[in-house]
TrEMBL record:
Keywords: Hydrolase. This is Xaa-Pro dipeptidyl-peptidase C-terminal domain-containing protein. It comes from Blastococcus mobilis. InterPro entries: AB_hydrolase_fold (IPR029058), CocE/Ser_esterase (IPR005674), Galactose-bd-like_sf (IPR008979), Xaa-Pro-like_dom (IPR000383), Xaa-Pro_dipept_C (IPR013736), Xaa-Pro_dipeptidyl-ppase/CocE (IPR050585). GO terms for molecular function: dipeptidyl-peptidase activity.
Length: 576
């Protein structure tokens, strides 16, 4: 019997059923807390599942929401505004996933790959909740980021009582969650180990590495030695430590060993599983987290049932405890869980906030407007122009930069090109590409591209980004103009001294450049250690730096049309 108590949240009294034991089909029990109004009646339930710990989520009742760069911002308090959920007359069920917190069982690898599928456990939790006397049989789900990914994994299992989901800020292509353009991203380490302000996963000794579970000690030793041959990995102390002492970094160890896409990431890829989803799905994501914007669009296009896609405004890192998007979430669940025809399904399927003009564009598809891909060419003297360079490389000589490893310098070298100030409002919505003709003197490097909207007063805002590890330059057959794709299934070293064309995917964005503003593109092989955008992100939200000295020559001449290919809408936005 669960312990039922009452807590006060402002003027609201909340009934809390603590430490419910939820049986799984294999005999393991998971722990959950249920928050509701004190009146004894059945209500729809919103279920939140993650490994971050249900006790941490209870801070939503006592901690005012924090925003970056507050040092009190904790990226793991993501299950939603408990008092608001209860006030809207739902039961808020917050559970610990298998192997975490107060739940039983073992967690193997990332998203329990190799163990019991987390979607299967979610199915069992949802159906158990639906049968409780305090639930009316209608269940939805709640939560951002990991909680959002869990909603997709759950819905793909088709639990009968799950009537709809509302996903905010999830991570869907698991390879792209850990390697952007083939460049390792450190955020999964922060989520697992609690670095950079995050509390991390609430695991003790019941999580194991799938690599250590799957392969012999000899095979693991061989794979570790291979990864340590990568000078980027070998130059980063934490990765050397993880590879030699994996048992306390098991999920991160698995990610580090798997630097190529394939079965490891595809087995539980929510994009693939989403083909099984037939319930209504609402997808919400803010601009500035490009790879997750990309994932939400890909998921939206995969789904076949009732669906919505809302791309919100910059900046990307929302409050923790997470309280945003609740108004829309409750409209969604009022319709699908309570049967109230509030008109939400009469509204367009896609809604996109356009930076710059600050208008909202709606449509039934992505992109929400017809676009025409046009090129802006990199030119000498930092110029970005609609016209290509006419001189050959012997006259329009390449420009370049030498980047020393961050072991010996704090300076990140950056090349920059800029348009002239726009004379009229110019709107771009969609995905883009950067074609770079480059020569390097090493077998590999990173290309990191960032596009900015620069105002006349000197302020600027990040518009989109692109990443590509040079050895991952191969394109696959999904590639179209302005919309490149890389398979990331093998790494092909670069021949030093050879000019190669590298095509970077620019993550989806929506922005109007107002009169007097300029579009600025910056190229580097490492990220700046600090700037206005990075200050909005947790300290670990950066990418593995290049571990060797590299000289880069960028050709932008009549024979080498280095350029951006960008999605210009056919109608200029009205500027309010």
């Amino acid at each position: 019997m669960a312990d039922i108590r009452q807590v006060q949240a402002g003027t609201q009294t909340i009934a809390v059923r603590k430490d419910l034991r939820v049986p799984m089909r294999d005999g393991v029990t998971l722990a959950a807390d249920a928050y509701s109004g004190v009146e004894d009646k059945p209500r729809p339930a919103l279920v939140a599942l993650s490994p971050y710990g249900k006790e941490l989520q209870a801070l939503a009742l006592t901690m005012p929401p924090q925003r970056r760069p507050s040092p009190m911002w904790d990226g793991c308090i993501e299950a939603g505004d408990i008092a608001r959920v209860v006030g809207e007359d739902y039961v808020h069920v917050i559970g610990d996933l298998r192997g975490s917190g107060a739940s039983e069982g073992e967690h193997i690898g990332n998203y329990n790959a190799g163990g019991v599928p987390l979607g299967q456990d979610a199915y069992d939790v949802i159906e158990w909740v639906a049968e409780q006397p305090w639930c009316d049989g209608n269940v939805g789900m709640i939560g951002i980021s990991y909680y959002g990914s869990m909603q997709v994994l759950a819905a793909a299992e088709r639990p009968p009582s799950l009537k709809a989901i509302f996903v905010s800020g999830g991570h869907f292509d698991f390879y792209e969650t850990t390697y952007h353009g083939g460049v390792m991203w450190f955020m999964p380490r922060a989520a697992r180990e609690g670095r950079g302000g995050d509390s991390g996963w609430a695991f003790t000794d019941r999580i194991t590495s799938r690599m250590l579970e799957t392969y012999s000690a000899e095979e693991v030793e061989k794979r570790v030695a291979e990864r340590l041959q990568d000078p980027d990995v070998a130059a980063w102390p934490n990765l050397v430590h993880v590879l030699h002492y994996p048992k306390h970094h098991e999920a991160w160890f698995d990610i580090v060993l798997n630097d190529l896409d394939g079965e490891w990431y595809e087995e539980r890829n929510p994009i693939n599983l989403a083909r099984n989803i037939d319930i209504p799905v609402y997808l919400q994501i803010d601009q500035g987290r490009g790879w997750t914007v990309d994932g939400h669009i890909e998921l939206f296009e995969t789904l076949t049932g009732p669906k919505k896609l809302v791309i919100g405004s910059y900046p990307p890192m929302q409050s923790r405890p997470w309280v945003e998007e609740h108004d829309e979430m409750f409209r969604w669940y009022e319709y699908w869980l309570k049967g109230v025809d509030n008109g939400i399904m009469d509204e367009p399927a896609v809604s996109v906030f356009v930076e710059g003009s600050r208008e909202v564009v709606t449509a039934e598809q992505w992109p929400p407007k017809d676009v025409e891909y046009r090129s802006l060419y990199l030119r000498p003297r930092g110029k970005l122009s609609a016209e290509p360079e006419l001189l050959g490389p012997e006259h329009a000589a390449p420009e370049g930069f030498y980047q020393a490893p961050l072991t010996v310098t704090d300076k990140v070298e950056i090349l920059s090109w800029s348009t002239a100030p726009f004379e009229e409002a110019t709107e771009l919505i969609g995905t883009g590409a950067a074609h770079l003709f480059a020569e390097i003197d090493q077998p590999d490097t990173n290309f990191i591209l960032r596009l900015w909207d620069a105002a006349p007063n000197g302020k600027r805002q990040l518009i989109t980004t692109g990443y590509l590890k040079a050895s991952h330059r191969e394109l696959d057959d999904r590639t179209t103009e302005g919309n490149p794709y890389h398979p990331h299934t093998r790494a092909v070293p670069v021949e030093p001294g050879k000019i190669e064309e590298y095509v970077l995917r620019l993550y989806p964005f929506a922005s109007t450049f107002r009169p007097g503003h300029r579009l600025v593109v910056e190229l580097s092989n490492d990220e700046p250690l600090a700037d206005a955008h990075n200050a909005l992100l947790p300290p670990d939200a950066f990418h593995l730096p290049v571990g060797r000295p590299v000289t880069h020559k960028i050709y932008r001449d009549a024979l080498h049309h280095s350029r951006l290919v960008l999605p210009f809408t056919r109608r200029a936005a009205e500027v309010g």
